[in-house]
Each structure stands twice: as structure tokens, then as C-alpha cells.
Specification:
The chain is built from 8 helices and 20 strands. It has 378 residues and is α+β, with helices and mostly antiparallel strands. A 6-stranded mixed β-sheet has the order 6-7-8-3-9-10, with helices on both faces. Strands 13-12-11-14-20 form a 5-stranded antiparallel β-sheet. The protein is globular, with a radius of gyration of 25 Å. Bound molecules: adenosine-5'-triphosphate. The site of adenosine-5'-triphosphate (ATP) has 12 residues, from strand 2 and helix 1. One of its GO terms (molecular function) is transmembrane transporter activity. It comes from Pseudooceanicola nanhaiensis. This is Spermidine/putrescine import ATP-binding protein PotA. Keywords: ATP-binding, Nucleotide-binding, Transport.
Amino acid sequence: MTSTQTRADPILRIESVTKSFGSFTAVRDVSLEVGEGEFVTLLGPSGCGKSTLLRMIAGFEQPTSGAIRMRGQDISQQAAYDREIGMVFQNLALFPHLNVFDNVAFGLRARRRTEGIDRKVREMLALVGLEGFETRGTAQISGGQRQRVALARSLVTSPDILLLDEPLSALDLKLRRQLQGELKRIQQDTGITFIFVTHDQEEALSMSDRIAVMNAGRVEQFGSAVDTYHRPQTEFVARFVGETNLLRGQVHAADAARVTLRLDGLAAPVAVAVPLPAGETPPGQGDPVAISVRPEHVELGRPGLHTCEARVTSHSFSGATITYALDSAAGPLLARVPFQPGQGHPLPDGQSVSAGWPDEAVTLIPDQPGHDTTDKEI
Ligand SMILES: Nc1ncnc2c1ncn2[C@@H]1O[C@H](COP(=O)(O)OP(=O)(O)OP(=O)(O)O)[C@@H](O)[C@H]1O
């Protein structure tokens, strides 16, 4: 611990960081705290500023304003090689003229380490499952194995933080899913703080302790994977992280415990009771709001729910579930329902059904006037 560090200091604190390139602002007023040993993911569409933020943490770019602190110390102006931060890139940049062992040993030799290189490199190769590959050239191993070498090469110098910029995006889906699990295991085994960049929401949900969802240079929400999916705070987050139904309406009544809404478009006014998040001020009567209901929480033909009449317009079968596209008075709806063997055939197009959802499946999203709700692009 240094003289400027206190026990409460997180390993990384980003304070109101903005980065502009000429008149274009790539990262806007971002503040984040990352705890020791956390797996944090920056998630967002192409061009939202994820890599720029990561490059500022690494020291390859300087913030235009704001500060980046590591254990309390401002590192914003410190050179990249003076930071105890490793980085794994999307394009691996392994040294083609060096074999696997020498690629992994590179960082130790560059730091003029002379002792324990052999032991440390073999330890790293065992960690990433590449024992026995020491003398292979980088052209004699697969894409997934190359990515493991890149990871071992970044971990060998025992960085305090490892930054990973879309390290799995060049791999096919099956290998990608396998390496996601391995990366998570390696992060837990080593206890190193990981900051991972991806535009793949499933990847982010399956690996992260916390996710920072970015849109147009800003962090829209920073929270656990479960909250990001089940409690989106903005329309952008609700749409970008998974599929959702966004229904609009006005506040009918609100108190500290509940908010009741009337949804637009329904002939008979239907009230939807929504529990208000703790500590939040209730919205006023007549305020415009939206609700998010995930397709898997929309149930068809079940009595006792808040329902609206709907008509099937199409369906897609995916083995365990069927996703119905529905036309309802409240707008288009998606319903994803389990499909049991022996259940017969899916509901035909044109079939009338009542669609409903339980109270606890509803997330209230306050109206955000002028807010950018850029659609997801993956
Ligand atoms: N050196 C630069 N000069 C000018 N503009 C830049 C520079 N670096 C990044 N940008 C712009 O900043 C914006 C954010 O880029 P960034 O690479 O951070 O996005 P990203 O979210 O990582 O996207 P992707 O997922 O496509 O890599 C983009 O519009 C990009 O064109």
C-alpha cells in the first residue's frame, strides 16, 4: 500500500473521464469503480467508446479531462509500460518468429527477469491448457490455441489488472463458448481483476460480475449481470441486453410502494401494478413511462394475470421454446413459451389469444426525453 492509498480505494477508479478526438467525443463523462478481483465487462454496440476507454486505462490514450486512479493514485499521465496492467487484443499480435514458450516468456525477458522464467512460463501454459506445446511455432497451432498463448503471455508478468479487448470475437461460436468458461475459471484461479470488452450480450451476461453498458460514449448502467438483464434502467439497456417488449403508458397512481400505469392503446384501461425500486421517488400522475417485459415472461391464455387481447402473427420454433410474434392493442409483443413434447402443434397464425405477465416481471423505465435509444447493432 502506498502513502496515498487508503483501504477503501478500489483497484481502479475512473473519474468523469471524457475523450475527444478533435470535435468528436468518443467517451463522455464516464465514472466507474472496479473492485479488486472483479470481472467487469464494458458492453455496447460498435463505436460506443469501449476500446477508447480501455486504451485510456492501458495508457495508450490520455483522457481529455477527468482522472484514472489505480489504488487511489492518479495514473492518467503515467506511461503504459509503468502501469501494472496487461492487455489482450482482438488481433493477437503474437510474435510469428518465436515459438509458444518464447512468446509467453517475452514479457519476463523484456523486464530483464533472469530467474524462474522456465517455471513461470510452464505454470502459465498449464493454466491455459497448453502443456506440451512449448516448441510449436505460432503457425502450427489453432486459432483457439493462439488466443490461449496470448492470454498466457499477458498473465505471465502477474499484472494487477488484465484488459481484454474482444479477445474471442475471431473464434467460431463453439470454441468461443468453451473459452468463455475457461477465461472465467482462469480469472477466478488467479484472482486478477479483468476488464473485458465485448459487443456480445450473452458473453457479457455469462462471464461478468458487473457489466457497464455503454451507448454513444456514456455508461448507461453499471451493475450485476442479473440486474442488467432483469432491471434495465433505460430503454437502450432493455433493448440491447436481450430481447424485450417495451410498452408505453402513463402513470395512473403512485406511492412509495407501488406504481400503477395505464398502457397506451388498450380499449379498456388496464392498470399494471409495478413495484417501485427502493429509494426511488414515485413518478407523478400522468407522467409518461415505459415498461419492459421480457418475452419469456409473457404467458398466453393464463387466467389471473394482467392481460391484453392479442393475435398471433408468426412463430419460430427453437427446440425447447416457441417464440410467438403477436399483435396486441398495446403494440407488437413477443412471447417465448416452453414447448413440451406431446403438446401438439404451435398456435396457428391469426389465432386470438390473451397475453399477460405477472407483476414481478415488469420493469418500470422512466421517460427519458431526447434520450438516444440507438438500436442494437451486433
Ligand atoms: N484515434 C481516433 N481518432 C478519431 N476518432 C477515433 C479515434 N479512435 C476512436 N475514434 C472514434 O471513437 C468512436 C469510439 O471508438 P471505439 O473504438 O472506442 O469504439 P468501440 O465501442 O470499441 O467499437 P468496436 O466495438 O467497433 O471496436 C468511434 O466513432 C471511432 O471512430
